[in-house]
Structures are given as C-alpha cells and as structure tokens.
Amino acid sequence: MYQKKIEEFIDAHRQEMVDDICRLCRINSERSAYQEGMPYGKGASMALSEALGLAERYGFAIHNYDNYVGTADLNDKEKQLDILAHLDVVPAGDGWSVTGPFEPVEKDGRIYGRGTADDKGPAVAALFAMRAVKELGLPVSKNARLILGTDEECGSSDLRHYYKVEEEAPMSFSPDAEFPVVNVEKGRLQGHFTAEFEASEELPRICSVKGGTKMNVVPGKAMAVIEGLDDDLVRGEGKKVESETGVSFSIRGMNETLEITAEGIGAHACGPQEGKNAITALLLLLTRLPFADCGQLRAIRSLTELFPYHDTAGGALGIAMEDEISGTLTLAFSLLEITADSLDASFDSRCPVCANEENVLKPVRERLREHGFTLTTPAMEPPHHVDGESDFVKTLLKAYERYTGRKGSCGYMGGGTYVHSLKNGVAFGAAMPGTDNRMHGADEFAVVDDLLTSAKIFAQVIVDLCK
Asked: Do 291 and 399 belong to one domain?
C-alpha cells in the first residue's frame, strides 16, 4: 500500500538527496578535542548543525541535546519508532584515488567520500523517507523520530547522554549496516592485561616491543628492538616465520641494536581472520631467537602460547565457541607494549549469543593468571539479540522484500551499532547484500540507487509501524 506514491516521491527528489549527502560529507566530523559547547569538537558539531538545519527546512520539529545528539520528529504523537544514525566519521586515512575524503563527488552511480556510506548517506535516506511520509500525507497515528548522533565511532557516549533524558521507543533500527536485518550483534570482551618482571641486562636481550594502533584493529605493523644478535641470524629466522605467516620482516641496525619491523595486513577486529597480525607474528619470531633467559622472555613465550599466530577463535585461551544464531567467537590480539620490566597488552574478542562472563571472562582471567598476567577488564559487553520472529522484524523484512524483490532474512554481525543496548533495536540497511562500500577505508562510497531504495523501504516501514 502506497508503494507507487513512495517510489515516485523518492525518485523525484534524487538530486536533492545527493546534494544533501554531499553537503554533509564536506564536513570533516571526525571526533576532535572538546571545545566549549562542542563535546566532540568543531567538526562533529558543524555536521549536527547542518543536518538539523536540513530537517528543519523540510518542516520537521528538531531538538539539539547539547550538541551530543539531534532529533527530528515526524509529528507530535505517541513515541513509536526511533531511527538512529550517526554523523561522525572515522579518520580520513591515506590512499584516496577517486576524490579527496571530504570532497564528495558522484561518479558512475556512486557518491564517493568519507561518510557517504557510514553513516551520513543512510542518515539522509532516513530523512527523505520521513519527508515522503510527511509530504505525501500518508496516514500515521504515532511518531517516528530520526536520532542523529555524533560519537558512534568512539564509544557512543552521545547516546548515553541522550537516554539520560529520553526513553527508548518501542521499536528502533539503525541504518548503519546492511540489509536485510541484523538482529544479532555479538558480545564483546575488550581484554586489557599487564605483567611486571625483573629487568635483565644479560645479552642477547629484547630491549622493547611495540605494536598496534587501536583496540578494535588487527595490527598491520609491530616493532621490536633487540641487542646482542647477528643480523643475518635474525633475517634467516624472519624468512622462516614469514613463510609460515605471510608477515614480512625488515631488519635495521641502530648503534649496538637491531630494529625489527613486522609488516602484516590490518583488518577490523570483528574479522581477524581477514588480516595478518603483525604482533603475533613478531612474537613468534622473538621466541625463535636465542635470547638469554629472563622474566621478560618467559612472558613473551607465554604470549605466543596464549595468542598463537593462527588462532583467531580463542582456542588457546579456552574460550572457542559458536552457536547457530551468531556463528563463532573471534579474537584479535591488538595492542602490545613491552619494556625491560613490564608488559601492557590488549585483545578484542567478539562473542556469540551463547557467550557470557562465566564461560568467557572468568576462563580468560584464570588462564592469564596462570601465566603471570593480570586481567584488568572487569566486565564484558553482552551479546544483543532481538527475536527474528517478532512482528517488528517481520515488518522490516516484508518492506525489504517488497522494494527489492529479494528474499529477506535475519543475520548477525561482529561489529556493533547504536542499537546494541536497546531492548528492541536492530540494524537495518543501508547497504545492499554483497556491496563492499569500503567503510573505514579509502574511496568509501555509497551506491545512489541503493540509498534511494533504502529511503523507499524506510518510508514504507514508518507507515507500517506507525499507522
């Protein structure tokens, strides 16, 4: 019902939608230092102001929650549906070839630029869905609210601020993943652990080890400084480890020491098997070299036992598990710093629905303790699961099927969205199945036709759920 009207409206406003997306994507809204009245810096606040200006121009009542979150309401009726999108972006990064990261362009049916797919493009698609319902006068008796956040990429503290003063809607979705419906988001254990040992000056020795950039990234690079070994010996062992792991090693002399650099392939922590972990490969190499025995070396050997290179499922930690709803547990050893007398390390595990603190957190703490490490992480984030047979999810799938002609189904993801902590929240769109939008990478893009289809689907969902 109303499909023809919705399709004609969205298609007629195609260029406006593209222009609005480009307007938002010209703003670098990466989180930056706090400024008065701007909790996540100037860029995020500018993007929020611009987006709320668009919503107000299209006739929606808006509200700014202290520059943390902004909202646009379809009407002033009873709360029913929240649509949660975010306007902040990850850093631009290097390697852009089609256009600059904040110089969005439309080319060959795609909009290129940072934020086009994650998540400014989908946010605008949701706004135009609300426009369609409003301007076509489609009958609704309850409210749909578009919630625009500015800190999704760095922990979602914006939503915590918002939900201190607002209640959840009975139903929520975030267009920050892919269709059809993601009704399961894995749990997460961000494990941080430490160790101390007596410093040793005996040669040969390891002076330092360092690797990783963020907790949720498989490290593509790691470095160690060693002393007292011949560079040909190190290079030879490096070749052997490279043949086993695919991680390459370069050796450089520095005064009386050697600097070893491991070069792997970075990946998101929710898919560690897609990368080549430079830290675990470097640790493997260090255990193959004839260093003098000491507490530091024994700690490194323990690390290779607990986090062996090819183990991305937590098997060595005793937490490997899987279920039919959400697949296997994954684990990425992501951050490490070792000095002469201390060790500081972190890993990121994405845990299926069957996971809990009894079968994940406690075994990890005990296993680390057995090897002299102290886990400082007090708790894990539980998995999120919404019933795939609920009327809410079935309504979403029905709209997806109607506008795409594809079969709808539920799925899971290792990453998290704004709805992870919401009782009845799922991820819904805006990428179509099989589309790699290069989110978080160079040349990020959104397919214009997919965004148009998303807007149509969202409009139908608003009508169906708020009627």
From this structure: no
